[in-house]
Structure prediction request, 475 residues.
Amino acid sequence: MMSTKFNYSLLCLLLSSPLALATNTANEPLGKTLLAQGSIQAERSGAKQALKRLSPVYRTDVIRSGKDSNAQFRMIDNAYLDLYENSELRLHEYQLKADGQRGSVIMELISGGLRTISGIIGKQNKSDYQLKTPTATIGIRGTFYEVSLTKEGMYLAAWKGGITIKTHSGACNTALGLGQQANFAFVDQQGQCELLTEAPPIFTRKAPKPKANQGGALALAAKENIDPVRTVPKGEELPSGGGSGSGSTDDGKPLARQAIIITPAQQAIKGSASQTTQGTPTLKVKGELLTTQPQHVQQYSQPLSQFDVQWGRWADYQLSSGKETPNQHGLMWISYQGTPKAVLEQRSGSAHYDHLLASSVQSSMGEVSKLKVGMNIDFNSGKITEGKISAEVPHHTWQGQFNGQLSAGDLALKFQQGQLINHANHQASSVNGSISGDFVGNFGQAIVGGFDMYQANNPANHINGAFLIQEPDGH
Prediction:
């Protein structure tokens, strides 16, 4: 009876998603709010309404974001839209036809900026999709683009796919992106276009040193098919357009299952994996395929039957590119099927995950015991706080702290700091590390993850492994 009741509830959740809407009228939502940080308001029929997580948005809404504010929306065609601070966006039309494959979009960016990964409508004819701005009309097809309005004019970026620009003055009618001369442009107040060979500073930050827990689809999309860009788009909040659970860091099409790989470079990173029953899946990370031979499998297990999770360790492996691999510590992988995004997007309130169901951990310092992992997740704000991980090894205790962000079903964890405590003299030394995780289970009742920590002044002392935790009451 409990299973039947849950399946009915899940069906209701999925049907209430904007994706289930085939058409829309003035009274039907065009999408829903996935994230509302700071002051986010919709002006509707002359009245202002504060938007919060899961709030619907409607045709003719004028959405405004205040200072230090940010909003994300999932539209009825599965498009994702990120509205920046101090921005104003009018939703003139966002209609998906009854066949669920065609439609039309007319939006107007009045001020500020936005970034979007297009959905079904954006993959059709450019004339079906229009973003109007004070100086030009933008058309797209199957793309990921960004627009920022300034006092001087308008900056545009076609991070993936292509866009067209037609200025109101008639001075410019050009295209950016795939197959074009440039991916970036500036349009002045008179409608004159200047093509740019590199991303303008308003869209970018200096490329950071690689971090294990970074893998948002925006960063991926910016790196794909763009040359000679040497920078990445600011922020990594929006999810990829397909799949479930956390966004993949793969270049190109991911493999059948999601994965977390703990590499010899002391990073826990997300990728994908093929199906396996022998502990030798093909792993894919950043476009690179990793494989091994059966004799190199040190461990392979499916820790709990109620969750579709597998993990294992390899003593050695090969890269498809033929590059040499630093195999001082081997490699650990975690393969899983994540919780559907549509389910996670419907969750609200907060939850604490700290009940350890299963783990596999090893350390260069000896046998590992008393592993503890916990974190608080606020599904309304998307913030992950009070993340803690600890484990005992002979005469020492490893401790780490982390936080993160949940955005449109994508869980991104970030290792903050750690210490290795010597029991003999009670002295603590600094620890570096990484951590990655994702929701599993029909309604995200558990989190699977991988981590790595190493002593900053002596990297030979390290610990890494996999964990599966759930809420204490299991739901």
